[in-house]
Amino acid sequence: MNDPRGRKRSGKEGIDPSSLPAAKEDRGRSLLHALRNTGITVLYQDTGLRVLWAENMPAAWSAEEIIGKTDGEFLPAAQAQIVQAAKARVLQSLEPERVEVSLPHSGGSLWFEVWIDADQGANGEVHGLVTTAVDRTESKRREQTLKTLLRELSHRSKNLLAIIQSIATQTGRYSGTIDNFLARFHGRLQSLASSQDLVTSSNWRGADLRELVVGQVARYSTQTGNSVMFEGVNPYLNPNAALHIGLAMHELAVNSVSYGALARPGGVVTVSAELEAEPPEQPPTLQLVWTELIGSPLEDEPRQKRFGSVALERVVPRSLNGAATLAIEGNRLQYRLLVPGGNFEID
Q1: 224 versus 184: which is more confidently predicted?
Q2: What backbone phi and psi angles, to 5 degrees, belong to 50?
Q3: CA 335, chain centre distance (Å)
Q4: CA separation (Å) from 321 to 18, 24, 53, 147, 343?
Q5: What's the pLDDT tens digit per position in 234-284?
Q6: Is the separation of the CB atoms in 7 and 30 below 8 Å?
Q7: Who is most buried in 10, 84, 98, 253, counting CB within 10 A?
C-alpha cells in the first residue's frame, strides 16, 4: 500500500518495516530494565544446565559469579538437588514445573517460587532452559507469622477455657443454689473478660498492674480514685499473670464491697507492689499486698472456705508458681501474693 507521497506502508498503518529490528531491540532492553524493578530473576541455561546468562540476580550473587556454572555450584546442596531434579524432568517431559526453594541470608532465609520451562525452537528442538525465580520472602514471612499467631491464639484459648472450667467447677462447689452460682460465675467471667480486654489491647503482651487493679475495683466502686491507693512499682504482667491476678483482685473487691472497706463511705483499700531481691542469677519476685480495714471482725460465715478464698490462696498462686496468704487480724484484712520473676517485666 502506498501513501500519497509514494512511500510503501506495512500492513499496520504508520509502521515502517525497516524500524522493526530496532523496535525489538528497544523492547528487549526496556523489558530487562523493567525487570530490575521487580523481585523476579531470570536464568538461561543450556541443556547441560550451564548458566549462559542471568538477569536481576538476588543480592547473594551477581550474574558474573554464576555464568558458566551449574546449580550445584552456586546453590546450597539441598536446594540444588531439588532444582536439578525438576530441571531434569522438564528436559525429559518438556512440561514446565514449579518448585519452592529457600536460600540462607544474613537477615533470615530468602524464599523463591521457581518456574522452569524448556526453550524449544520451531522444529521442537530443545535449546536450553528458562528459569524464572520470583521472590516470595515477604509473603512467606507473613505466612509464617500468621501460623505462629494462630498457634499462639489456640494455646491461649485453651488456657482460657481451662481457667473458665476451673472457675465453673469451684464456683459450683461453693454455691448453695443455682441463683448464687449464676451470679458468682457471671461476675468471675466478667472479671476475666475485663483482664482479657487489657491483654488484647496490648497485642497479647499483657497488662499494666496498676490499670488492672483499678479496672477490677472500678467494676464495684464508683469512687475508685479515692477508694484505692496504689503504691510501689508498676510492672507489666504477662497474659497468664494478668488473668489470674485480675481474678484475685476481683475476689478481693467483691469481698470488700460485701464486708470490708468498700462497703462503707470513705473506705480505702491499699494495694502495694514491691520487688524482693533474689540471687543475682534469678529475676526478682514481685510482692503484691492488698490491705484494708474491715471495721469489725468478720462473722463466721464469711470466714468459711468459699471459692473466693480458695482462688486467692490456692488457684491464683499455683497458676503463677508463687505463694499467697490471706490473713484477718482484728479489723484488718491483708492478702499477700508472691509472684515469681518471669510473670512480669519492669519497663
Answers
A1: 184
A2: -90, 135
A3: 35
A4: 85, 74, 63, 29, 9
A5: 999 999 999 999 999 999 999 898 888 998 888 899 999 999 876 777 889
A6: no
A7: 253
pLDDT tens-digit profile of 99-109? 998 887 777 78
DSSP string, 143-208: HHHHHHHHHHHHHHHHHHHHHHHHHHHHHHHT-SSHHHHHHHHHHHHHHHHHHHHHHHHTTTS-EE
Q: Nine-digit cell at 92?
A: 525429559
As a whole number of angstroms, the distance between CA 174 and CA 255 comes to 15
Query: When comparing pLDDT for 147 and 307, which is higher?
Result: 147
Phi, psi of 324 (to 5 degrees): -150, 155
Can you read off the three cell numbers belonging to residue 2? 502506498
What is the arrangement of strands in the sheet containing 40-45, beginning at the earlier edge strand?
A: 51-55, 40-45, 126-135, 110-120, 97-103
Beta strands in the chain (DSSP E): 40-45, 51-55, 97-103, 110-120, 126-135, 207-208, 228-232, 236-237, 269-276, 285-293, 323-329, 332-339, 344-345
